[in-house]
Amino acid sequence: MNGYKIWTPYGWQPFDKVVKKGVKKTLKITLNNGHTLCCTPDHMIYESLFHAKKACEYKIGDTIFTEVNNLPIVKIEDCGEQEVFDILEVGGHNVFYANDVLVHNCEFIGQSNSLIDTNIIRQLLLDLENVSYKFVVDGDIRFYKDLEPWKKYIIGVDTSMGVDGDFAAIQVFSFPDMVQIAEWQSDKLNQNLQVEKVKSLTDWMYAEIKEKGNPHPEIYWTMENNGSGEGFICALREKGDTHYIKRGTIITEKGNKRIGFTTTRSTKPAACSQLKILIETNKIKINSRMLAVQLSNFSAKSAISYSANGEGHDDLVMATIMVIMAYLQEKNRLDLNMEIINYQTLDKETKMETIESMPFIFDMR
């Protein structure tokens, strides 16, 4: 990072650099407050905080998300060919305000050391451009799908210290179809409130499933117990331990005295590898564009580190990895049938050979 920062919906964020992109065709979009934005036709511009589309897809009268509110377009002009620039590796989620308009950086996508294949990530982001959540639970938990009474659900939690810029996240997936059902992310709740958020979610899901006809909902949850997970566990213990979240069944790593899972040099690569396999073989359904953005930025930071690139975030990815780790351990006992490789059951020689063949290295912190 260069020491400079740019204004984003997540506050001032660092960025890597400004680069020339050559001479390209450009458009000038004028809003009703007189502000203008010059960009290439394929530049992503947000119509809401969570949804963006290409500049060339907008028309007069459409509204664009700005720092103030949504403002209508009053004029779109062809500005001919001009030399254009782009800002790379913006912290947070690679979104930033340009002339008060929220725009998205596309150039960071497709680094050669990304976890997920470049072309698959690009297609996923395109597929999710216009996907929206269906409803919200407890104020800010976004649900993309309705709950089905006879499905099983696993909730993955990535905790945080609850300060600005340090995000906690929750992912909910259904099984055995491996569909992302819901997502939550915030840097405004302390660990005590993060515990309450998990309880609110499981309580609501349990009541909803029972109302739909299943008298015995199967809701499981787990968390990463490293680092900030210690504080989450302490907050949970003060409320009555796992009995406090009584509508969800905790999944804990076998042989671990603490609840949840510890990411280690053997467990984290297995889960990340499974996530890669699931996405690249189309055996997992992701419905969140924010998760897809983080996946596109999940790449090697150094020869021994594999996480969010630059100063971006990977909380949504890590919450998903918690779901994968729980699945790997419990899929037979809970009958979560999916035909994917189970690295935990491979013999040592086969496991090492498989992992070493992967074109990436993981951070085991």
Description of the structure:
The structure is a single chain. Helices cover 24% and strands 30% of the residues. Strand 1 and strand 2 form a beta hairpin. The protein folds into two domains: 5-104, Hedgehog/Intein (Hint) domain (Endonuclease - Pi-scei, Chain A, domain 1); 118-356, Nucleotidyltransferase, domain 5 (2-Layer Sandwich), CATH 3.30.420.240. A seven-stranded mixed beta sheet has the order 11-12-15-14-13-16-17. A four-stranded antiparallel beta sheet has the order 4-3-8-7, with no helix packed on it. Strands 6-5-10-9 form a four-stranded antiparallel beta sheet, with no helix packed on it. It is of the alpha+beta class. The protein is elongated and about 65 Å long. It has helices spanning 118-127, 191-211, 229-238, 267-280, 289-296, 315-330, 348-356, and strands spanning 5-8, 11-14, 17-31, 36-39, 44-48, 51-54, 63-65, 70-88, 95-98, 101-104, 135-137, 141-143, 152-158, 168-175, 179-186, 219-223, 249-250, 298-302, 305-308. The protein contains seven helices and 19 strands.
Secondary structure layout plus pairing:
Layout (H helix, E strand, L loop, with lengths): L4 E4 L2 E4 L2 E15 L4 E4 L4 E5 L2 E4 L8 E3 L4 E19 L6 E4 L2 E4 L13 H10 L7 E3 L3 E3 L8 E7 L9 E8 L3 E8 L4 H21 L7 E5 L5 H10 L10 E2 L16 H14 L8 H8 L1 E5 L2 E4 L6 H16 L17 H9 L9
Parallel strand pairs: 13-16, 16-17
Antiparallel strand pairs: 1-2, 3-4, 3-8, 5-6, 5-10, 7-8, 9-10, 11-12, 12-15, 13-14, 14-15, 18-19
